[in-house]
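Note to self: the last two entries modelled the partners one at a time, which told us nothing about the interface. This time every component goes in together.
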Amino acid sequence: MTQRQILIGKTVAHALCLIPALDLVRMYRNGSLVAQADPVNFITHFTGDWALWILLASLAITPLCCLSQGVGWQGLNGLVRFRRMVGLYAFFYATLHLLTYVLLFSGYNVPAAFAALEAGRLLEPWRQLQMIWPTILDDVQKRRFIQVGFAAWLILLMLAATSPRRVLKAIGGRNWQRLHRLVYLAGALACVHYWWLVKTGVRTPWKLTAVLTVLLGIRAAFGMRKRNSIPPDRRKKENREATGVLT
Amino acid sequence: MLLLTRRETEIPSSEITPKATYEAFELNRRQLMKGLSAAGVAMALTQKARAELKIDDLVATQYMVPDRATTPEQMAKSYNNFYEFGEEKSDPAKHAHTLVTYPWNVKVEGLVAKPRTFEFGELFHLQPMQQRVYRFRCVEAWSMVIPWDGFPLSELIKLVEPLPKAKFVQFLSLENRKEEILPFGIPWPYSEGLRMDEAMHPLTLLTFGSYGETLANQQGAPVRVIVPWKYGFKSPKSIVKIKFVEHMPPTTWNELAPNEYGFYSNVNPQVDHPRWSQAHERLLNAYTLFPKVVPTLMFNGYSDQVASMYAGMNLRKDF
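The predicted structure of the combined assembly is written out below.
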């Protein structure tokens, strides 16, 4: 890939990933967000849905490359360069999702916090957080759908924190790759989070689940094929080379 | 009551063609234009009969919610759980226009001395329509404040004379694949139930309208029941059958997830839903990005009127 192609590709990827966030800002500014009966519910689902879809998009990149190589086409190989960036956007939306829960869902008094800030009482936002803290703690202790959702976010946080090139070099490609395989676990946990949230009889999460299953299936199939095709003494070397692609 | 001052240019009311006469004329004219086809006449008559079922003389009542603002009408009519028309809360307002609410019959059967089928108009005119503003608490931890129009369900129950053996009342909603989506995964028709004393309670309202108008389709037109001290799903919509039975009837959400939705499902801040707390609710009564989160009240604030019915019961077990 030429520098120019990479630049164009990255610009397009940024633009695509930012569309949902910009759409939310647009809905806020033109009043259509507040014109809804329950904007909090809407924002919660909106940010949650996009976090998951973008996470799936990042998971889809490697299988796409594998499949296109399988049919002898190298045109999609360059996509791997955008994988980390797409993953970071998934973390961005997951964080918005978590913030929606903390600031809008749990009873945090945002207008009061803002008013106090304007009046110069700088500790009020913190005091507000202390007031809702027992509710949040109670939720995290009691509700398994919140536990798995939070676990998924913690994984994404860890991957985001270790995403800079410096960190990769510091911990080594092999370790980094191992750590970043946790992204599959995050995807699975996020799906479980969704299923445990909806009412019995409601099947809204089925599309996400189907896509995730297919992606994991492809990954597993390629993983197995690769393992079988490489003699044991060569595996170590191959892995080292593979990590080169992943950076 | 509204007193309007008349401007001089206005036509004296004596000269205005009575609305009924005009409507009759208009209907006749349309019928003629349709070539007096039998179907056309029947349809026109249906429309006329339906149009006459308007809520006009509402009796004001003491049932108010003074400490909470009423939910804007448009909000209450655009955010509904009515799974027959889809799983999203915006779905019913989008899809429920296909519901045919007239003609409509409600069959009352089971352990009663006088089982009968009520034609909708008959039911509508059974009692003077009362306006009651009730808190409405969804099991999903949001709430509204809605003025409902109707009369106590007990008035209907008295008419059919339940037998002493009748201990529960079951309500069945419309199940019609031509008019409804009926998503896969939920056993249709929607079924709800009340204990006899709950059904007879003066708060339990046989509801035909809200905000002074007949119910919007997405609210469960043309007739539903409102039980204000229970979670919203205990207030069934678009009722076609009322059955008096001896044993606790199967109810839809309870059958789907018995650990999440009890038969009683009284609003109770102390008994959590397995997946969320019921101690608070998001009060949806203003267009804002930051709705108030308020403490949920025991029996949705109707303790003084209903708590005695559950004296001695373990409300954690019989949630």
